[in-house]
């Protein structure tokens, strides 16, 4: 076991010495796509984590959830709540708005098509249709709003 630990330690310690081309090669082994930014320390850190995860296993789901709860409780950042709705590619959303029926198709890359145009989110599509800020899942009826008692 100690030989394995040393090997993992050695691999992680060598990351800062690698040429960026070699670092990207390692990245490509562990991740499906490259990040939008090319910050070397970020890439090294993520690859180092994956090397260790491969050797020793990942964080248990219950520990991961606990870490998320602790982080949210301590953070001063606003946390965006997700709807929990998963959209399957090919799903067609229909909505009547402004005396007109609107049809939006979910695409495989996570974007949405409306009248031949692509939108990065369902909310961006709803904003285009209405001309105002809308939650896409709310606009297309995927989530319900809670009415407050007066």
Characterization of the model:
The chain is an alpha+beta fold and 150 residues long. Helix content is 45%, strand content 13%. It has helices at residues 2-14, 20-30, 40-56, 61-74, 122-130, 136-139, and strands at residues 92-97, 100-106, 112-114, 117-119. It has a four-stranded antiparallel β-sheet with strand order 1-2-3-4, with helices on one face. The longest helix is centred in the first third of the chain and has 17 residues, at 40-56. It is elongated.
Biggest sheet statistics: 4 strands, antiparallel
Helix content: 40-55%
User: Spans of 5+ residues with little confidence (pLDDT < 50)?
Assistant: none
Average pLDDT across residues?
A: 87
Helix and strand run: HHHHEEEEHH
Strand order of the largest sheet: 1-2-3-4
Span of the ends, CA to CA: 65 Å
Overall geometry comes to elongated
Structural class: alpha+beta
Number of strands: 4
Amount of beta strand: 5-15%
Number of helices: 6
Radius of gyration: 22 Å
């Amino acid at each position: 076991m100690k030989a394995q630990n040393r090997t993992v330690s050695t691999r992680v310690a060598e990351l800062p010495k690698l040429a960026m081309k070699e670092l990207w090669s390692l990245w490509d082994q562990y991740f499906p796509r490259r990040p939008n930014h090319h910050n070397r320390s970020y890439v090294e850190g993520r690859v180092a984590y994956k090397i260790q995860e491969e050797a020793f296993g990942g964080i248990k789901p219950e520990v991961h959830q606990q870490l998320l709860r602790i982080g949210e409780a301590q953070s001063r950042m606003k946390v965006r709540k997700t709807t929990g709705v998963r959209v399957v590619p090919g799903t067609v959303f229909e909505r009547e708005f402004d005396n007109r029926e609107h049809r939006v198709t979910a695409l495989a890359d996570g974007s949405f098509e409306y009248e031949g145009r692509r939108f990065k989110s369902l909310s961006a599509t709803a904003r285009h249709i209405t001309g105002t800020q809308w939650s896409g899942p709310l606009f297309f009826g995927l989530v319900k709003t809670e009415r407050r008692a007066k």
